[in-house]
Structures are given as C-alpha cells and as structure tokens.
Amino acid sequence: MADDQEQQVPAQTVEEPLDLILLSLDERIYVKMKNDRELRGRLHAFDQHLNIVIGDVEETVTTVEIDEETYEEIYKSTKRNIPMLFVRGDGVILVSPPMRTGT
Amino acid sequence: MATSQREKFIFKNTLLCLLKALERKRTTVELRNETSVSGTIDAVDFQMNISMTNVVFKAPNNKSERFTDFFVQGFMIRFVHIPDFINIKKAIEGVVYCNDRSRLDTKFQRNKMNVNAKKMERRRKFQEKEDQKLSSLEEN
C-alpha cells in the first residue's frame, strides 16, 4: 500500500517548488522566518502551507539596537533550543540547506 | 455540529493532523505577539484555532497569569511545542487513516466518552444491587 505521505521516497524529477523541500526531508535545514527569526534543525515534516515540523532546533532572534550617542547599529541575537517544534506556515519566508558561514 | 467534508479534507491533507493528535496533551503554544501559552489542548479545529484548559499565560515582560480556559486564534500562532512522548508518525497515521468520525470530531468524541462513562456507572450500580441481593439471600 502507499506509504504515509511524509515517508514518500523523493521523486527523481523535481516538478514543483515543494519537491525541492521534499529533497531535504530528514536533513538539517535552515528556515528564515518573519520578524528576523531563523531556525536551524532537522526537517521532519512539511505540508503545502509550509507548516513545518522541525526537530533539535536552534531558534535565533536578531534585534538591532541604535546607540544613542554614536548612532551606530548594534546587532544582537538571542538563541534558544527546542527538541521538537511545529511551525505555522504563514511565518516562514524560506527553507534551505544550512548556510556555511565564512564561505 | 458535524465535521464538514472541508474540515475532514483539511485534517487529512495538511500537518493539522499532528496538532489534532495533540488534543488532551499538555504543550506550549507560542503566539505572534511574543506571548506563550502553556496548558492542556482541549480542541483543535481546521483553522488551527486551539482551545486550552489549565493555562499559564506568559507575557513578554515574563509576568505569568493563570486561566482555567483559554482560546487561541489560529492565525496568531507562531509555534506549537511537540512533547517528547509523542510518536509523530503514529499520531499522524491515527488521524489520517481513521475512517470513523470519532477522531476528527471533537464534540462527537467527547459525547462518546460521556456515554461510555454513564454506561460504566450504570453497570457498576447494577452489579452492586446484585451483590446486595446475593448477600441478603445468603443471610436468610
């Protein structure tokens, strides 16, 4: 019988954009979200709304503060670890394999 | 209120099935306005609206408030924490492959639980009466 929808073997041809995400199932991914948030973790499931189930995830929230005297922008980021998270699709901007910093 | 065809379709074809399987479990829901709600999920509907009980509501200034009942609008949700004890594959299969109404229709499910509870109660009382009769017969 047909496998559960999330357990499908990825098709050989990439036909639609969501197939690109299908290729990253069970791999580590980088998710950029609204409000300057980023998630890095293992992709367990997703659907057509881009609701995502992500495991071993590290959430990074980036804030910009402006120094009163020098008017320079100070970038601060807060990190948080969550074992398993369901992300509502309307907050997701993009999904990609993890970025290599410094390359 | 029966689950409409549209609701059933949405539960069986999107990841909402996982949230549906979280009913009656304790989790934390984080909202778009930087607040978090920790409590027992009572019901999830096809628009991701979640009603919860025994809730601790945390504001951005870290102040907590307790509520017995809480309702979260679906579009306000940013994250839902999935508890460690949930087997995701089994939870999704339980919702997607079920053919009867009980797992998709919260009110129907609750009614069923109440009816079963009443049946058990009636059976227990009947059994007690029978035992009393037997013991009074033995005495005589």
TrEMBL record, chain A:
What gene codes for this chain?
LSM3
Which GO biological process categories is it annotated with?
A: mRNA splicing, via spliceosome
- Which molecular-function annotations from GO does this UniProt entry contain? RNA binding
Q: Does the keyword Nucleus apply?
A: yes
User: Gene3D superfamilies in the record, alphabetically?
Assistant: 2.30.30.100
Pfam families xrefs: LSM
Q: Can you name this protein? A: U6 snRNA-associated Sm-like protein LSm3
Keyword annotations: mRNA processing, mRNA splicing, Nucleus, Ribonucleoprotein, RNA-binding, Spliceosome
- Lineage, please? Eukaryota, Metazoa, Spiralia, Lophotrochozoa, Mollusca
UniProtKB/TrEMBL annotation, chain B:
Could you tell me which residue ranges the Sm domain spans?
A: 17-82
Q: Which Pfam families does this one have?
A: LSM (PF01423)
Which InterPro entries is this protein grouped with? LSM_dom_sf (IPR010920), Sm_dom_euk/arc (IPR001163), U7_snRNA_Sm-like (IPR052840)
| CDD domains named in the record | LSm10
- Molecular function as annotated in GO: histone pre-mRNA DCP binding; U7 snRNA binding
SUPFAM superfamilies reported for this sequence = Sm-like ribonucleoproteins
Q: Where is this region: Disordered?
A: 119-140
Give the domain of life. Answer: Eukaryota
Q: What is this protein called?
A: Sm domain-containing protein
Q: State any GO BP term from the record.
A: mRNA 3'-end processing by stem-loop binding and cleavage
> Among the entry's GO cellular component annotations, what is one?
nuclear body
